[in-house]
Amino acid sequence: MRVSRLIMATLRDVPSEAEIASHQLLLRGGYIRRITSGIYAYMPLMWRVLNKITKIVQQEMNDAGGLQTLLPQLQPAELWQKSGRWQGYTAGEGIMFNLKDRQGRSFGLGPTHEEIITRIASEMIQSYKQLPINLYQIQTKFRDEIRPRFGLMRSREFIMKDAYSFHSSEEDLKHTYNKMNKAYKQIFTRCGLETVAVEADSGAIGGAASQEFMVTADSGEDLILTSSDGLYSANQEKAVSIPPDPDPIGEGEPAVINTPNQKSIEELCSANDFEPSQIIKVIVLLALIGDGQEQPLLVSIRGDQEVNDVKLINYLSTQIGQEVLKIKPINIEEIDSQGLTKWPFGSIGPDLNDSFLSNARTWNKKFLRIIDCTAAELNSFICGANTKDKHRIRVGWDILEESPKIVDLRKAKSLDKCIHDPSQRLEEKRGIEIGHIFQLGCKYSKALEATFTNEKGSQDYFWMGCYGIGVSRLAQAAIEQNHDEFGIKWPISIAPFEVIVIIANIKDSSQVQLGENLYVSLQANGIDVLLDDRDERAGVKFKDADLIGIPLRVVAGRDAESGKVEIVKRSTKETQLLTSEEAIKKLLEEVLSDRS
RNA sequence: CGGGAUGUAGCGCAGUUUGGUAGCGCACUUCGUUCGGGACGAAGGGGGCGCAGGUUCGAAUCCUGCCAUCCCGACCA
Predict the structure, then answer these.
(1) Cβ neighbours for A468, distance < 8 A, ≥ 6 positions apart
(2) Is A284 (CB) below 7 Å from strand B?
(3) Backbone phi, then psi, for A122, in 5-degree steps?
(4) Using CA atoms, how far apart are residues A302 and A581, in angstroms rounded to an integer?
(5) Which residue has the higher pLDDT, A137 or A285?
């Protein structure tokens, strides 16, 4: 490809919409154009990058036994109603774009394809002899993100590889899951990325074990915790650790103390010389449940700890047996609008009486009381007295009438001791999630009644796994991990072109001839090569080559008369002056060794 | 959804306070000089100021409504 024929619109100024380096560089290099919030056009250079990634993904998936398909993006509502996800995905802050056809039938624009694939499997697979099977596709997905941002990182239309496996047993599922784990590592390494595999929450997709693959970068949206020995790493949503020991509370009789205007843990501590770890913090929340119930919660946790709401939602969902759509703090206005008398905010204890709910209009009239392990372990603690401006000191859990539900709800933090080895401490990093693998189990096969005939001739539900890679996100994450002040530094395996030949001065016929010859020979040798044949000053061409990030540059310039060209490595700026034969040999070596 | 900010040429911005019919840099076109790290000079082309109303002799500037985009937040009572 010749640069003169490529719509290469490089920008000197940074478009104001872009915040992070990778997004700015994609725009400045002319790789993408924003059409509207969270929706981008991939320009020719970008499309080449996406295709390179796609090819690597296809090879590894095929090697691991995957079968490529292409599934519909428009999906009928009934299928999602059957799996029980229609409501959650479309109502409220639901993430699925949806529409009606001319007959008034409802459809969703596919954010993911479990429903479709499960239906297909149930129709096409009759016998255990056909299992296991692993179907995948690479195509555009749609998600109406609450807040699209960072270009392709969180966009509403994006390219994803998703694979779904079907098995006759859990063991067989685990086998494929492990195979996918290996394939994923292979894919990311081949794409030139450094990734960390972390334990993850399975979220809205559901299921048991799950692992995320993170590109570490400061701009990442996820917080991950790793041990310095590398044996433990988890998304903070999932992470566990050993909490610090609480500060002992002195001996003495239980008592009620006056705490005027001491509403926060901080105020309480500074006024009375308490430590946060001696206090029980009670958080008042409302859970919105799938069937429309509104359940008030009293969550107790040690004052120096924080609640991990993913853990809380997961616990609630299994406890209630219903999907919990959302949890939110209860505020004073809501108490008024429920027609309730004032609550002693700032002095609420774990034993706040259910009578505070007795006249509630729409809420359930009994608190669900949940206690985090850190709180439950305290024998003697400080807590609100359920009366304005009063707290109790040196009380124990006998203040509760019923035995409480004790759950791990605590947010693990950096510097916490690790469970696998208390001498190790957790470290905090930011990560960009580019891959996620799940053991789904039978959730979807049961919901959609997808069965096969087993060895004994009876019907069994499929065991399922699902495996995603954000292809367009991966491309941007690669830039986030590989760039400098001048532009992108693509890993050669996913670069839009492997080599760029620059003719320094297009009016010098010996330079032109040398450059054109190099271009032709490199092409003949199967190298993806770009020729900058523009009538521009050399400096402009160098800047552009650096910006768009082509890994290897060859310059036919001032030494053209003597038949010499210059090779420059984008990543290191390392330079060599060679004859064009030597240069071709050298470039071939470089490309072949890194192409993978 | 809550809070904040911004919409003026493909990109970056000024002009809005104090209404008088739009400007700068980059990019683009032509000519000349220059030619290895985003050159210089000269001459050009392109927008009617997010949209819709209103006030006014006159609106990018004032008023009303809407829309869009970006940022922050969405458990610490």
Answers:
(1) A112, A160, A161, A162, A163, A435, A436, A437
(2) yes
(3) -65, -30
(4) 71
(5) A137
Take residue A535 and report the two structure tokens written for it: 């009538």
Provide the CATH topology of domain A497-595.
Rossmann fold (3.40.50)
Strand ranges of the sheet holding A74-76, from the earlier edge strand across to the other edge: A74-76, A106-109, A98-100
State which fold the A54-73+110-240+428-479 domain adopts. Answer: BirA Bifunctional Protein; domain 2 (3.30.930)
Handedness of CA A86, A91, A97, A103 (dihedral sign): positive
Which one, of A497, A396, A405, A456, lies nearest residue A1 by Cα? A497
Of chain A residues 123-162, which have a beta carbon within 7 Å of strand B? 146-150
What is the spatial distance between Cα A536 and Cα A464, in angstroms, rounded to a whole number?
Answer: 57
In the block, tokens 């004052």 appear at: A303
The pair phi, psi for residue A485, each rounded to 5°, is: -60, -20
Residue A329 pLDDT level (bands cut at 50, 70, 90): confident
Is A290:A326 a contact under the CB 8 Å cutoff? no
Residues 25-44 of A with CB under 7 A from strand B: 28, 34, 36-38
Q: What is the DSSP letter of A307?
A: B
Chain B bases near protein CB atoms (7 A cut-off): 1, 10-13, 25-27, 34-39, 68-77
Over the stretch A341-388, which tens digit does the pLDDT of each residue have?
A: 888 888 899 999 999 988 888 889 899 999 999 999 999 999 999 998
Contact A310, A239 (CB under 8 A): no
d(CA A396, CA A126): 59
Fold held by A255-407: YbaK protein (3.90.960)
Nearest Cα to Cα of residue A381 among A362, A400, A367: A400
What is the pTM assigned to this prediction?
Answer: 0.92
**Contact between A241 and A419 (Cβ < 8 Å):** yes
Query: What's the residue count for chain A?
Result: 596
The residue written with tokens 């009994």 in the block is A366
Residue A345 CB closer than 7 angstroms to strand B?
yes
Does A557 contact strand B, using a CB cutoff of 7 Å?
yes
CATH 3.30.930.10 range(s) for chain A read 54-73+110-240+428-479
Say which nucleotide is closest to residue A307, CA to C1' distance. B75
Q: How far apart (Å, rounded) are the C-alpha atoms in residues A152 and A34?
A: 10
Q: Which amino acid is at A358?
A: S
Q: According to CATH, where is 3.90.960.10 located in chain A?
A: 255-407
* Predicted local confidence at residue A205, as pLDDT: 56
CA of A46 to C1' of B23 (A): 35
pLDDT at A287: 87
pLDDT tens-digit map of A182-229: 999 999 999 999 999 998 877 655 567 889 999 998 888 888 999 988
Share of chain A above pLDDT 70, in %: 98
**3-state secondary structure at position A569:** strand
CB atoms within 10 A of CB A346: 17
Pair type for strands A324-329 and A381-384: unpaired
